[in-house]
Amino acid sequence: QVQLVESGGESVQSGESLTLSCVASGDAISIYCMGWFRQAPGKGQERVADLESETTTTYADSVKGRFTISQDNAKNIVYLQMNSLKPEDTAMYYCAAAVRVGDRCLEGYVYVGQGTQVTVSS
Q1: Do 33 and 96 form a contact (C-beta atoms < 8 A)?
Q2: SS (H, E, C) the chain
Q3: Is residue 110 a contact partner of residue 101, using CB atoms and an 8 Å limit?
Q4: Largest alpha-carbon pair distance within the chain?
Q5: pLDDT at residue 95, rounded to an integer
Q6: pLDDT band with cut points at 50, 70 and 90 for residue 53
Q7: What's the pLDDT score for residue 103?
Q8: First to last CA, the chain
Q9: Which whole number is the average pLDDT over 30-56?
């Protein structure tokens, strides 16, 4: 099992940057596929970024080129660097872990943190 605690969310102006952190305890994050998703008020969940391997990352089209996911296995922390923030990025951001089987990431997150709020004003 792994417990995930996010931090770093705050209120910023459009165009600014933020880095979200997700500190994991319990299992090493290296045995999972780590990712971030978000949920805005009144909207469904949107998968933002996934780190499938050290060299394979996927991003939602809405954040491609602006957001970067990374992880520090030694510290057991996952990061989401967010640049050029837009008002439409306003949401609760969640760190999550999916089961890894060899080189494959199984569909669906099995562990999710409590979230951190990001608010971007124009």
Answers
A1: no
A2: CEEEEEECCCEEECCCCEEEEEEEEECCHHHEEEEEEEECCCCCEEEEEEECCCCCEEECCCCCCCEEEEEECCCCEEEEEECCCCHHHCEEEEEEEEEEECCEEEEEEEEECCCEEEEEEC
A3: no
A4: 44
A5: 98
A6: confident
A7: 83
A8: 40
A9: 94
